[in-house]
Amino acid sequence: MILELLEYLTTACPKYARKLGYLKEAIAIGARQKRLAGAWAPHLEQSQTLIREAIDQCGRRRTALVLGSGLLLDIPLAELSRQFEQVVLVDLVHLRAARRQAAAFANVTLAAEDVTGMAADFDFRVSSGWQGDPVPDPTVFLDQPDIDLVVSANLLAQLPIFPAAALQRRTRLDGEPLEDFCRAVIAAHLAYLRRFDAVVCLITETERAALDKDGAVVQRQNALYGADLPGRGTQWNWDLAPLGEVSRTHAMRNRVAGFRDISTR
Ligand SMILES: C[S@@+](CC[C@H](N)C(=O)[O-])C[C@H]1O[C@@H](n2cnc3c(N)ncnc32)[C@H](O)[C@@H]1O
Is the pTM of this model over 0.85? Predict the structure, then answer.
């Protein structure tokens, strides 16, 4: 707990990432993963396998762009570094553990960027009367012509969470309009990914389920608010919170879909 607080106080990240809650969440993910390493391992291995398969699809291997790199738990970083001239890790928050790993490779760099195009000026937007509509079209890195692989790494379903919470708090947006906002953020990321002239690997939660003590599903939520994916992809479960982690009576399980290449080149 003290180490986590220290990390919160000493991690450099954009001011808005701290304010909107991304830094706190990144530190919480690290702590959760340590506690639940066994339960999370199959999901992290599946994600890494899919990214390796995406690397195999790349004819040219100049720059690999990893969106939502986080703690690099699901990223085969050594492999990416070996196979590509440059690897760019993109996240709003790069914690010390990720910085340390990246520093071991001369061709790996970190970029503290928001891939939605709305977090940096969120305050300004809201104070100017914006209520989540329209959602901006993200453009970051689209002008970089040497990108041959883009990986969206367990990021898509996370994108609306903090902006939606802030909108709800500050504008009282709720119910269906708030869900429409979440769906639009997700659709904008999918459209953004398709604008790269590269192999585009997508790994995302598609469903969040609550399970009772017998393992029966008692509640399901579409993690993408009904936004369309390009097919079923390769699917697996992620035991996010086994019994006892968030509740003594319920466990949480995510359904995940992985796509080696969703590009339309
Ligand atoms: C579930 S984690 C992904 C896990 C990560 N790939 C790993 O292996 O640790 C989602 C990541 O997306 C990042 N993220 C969320 N919204 C973002 C945004 N708008 N721009 C960039 N990164 C974002 C979070 O900071 C977090 O690190």
Answer: yes
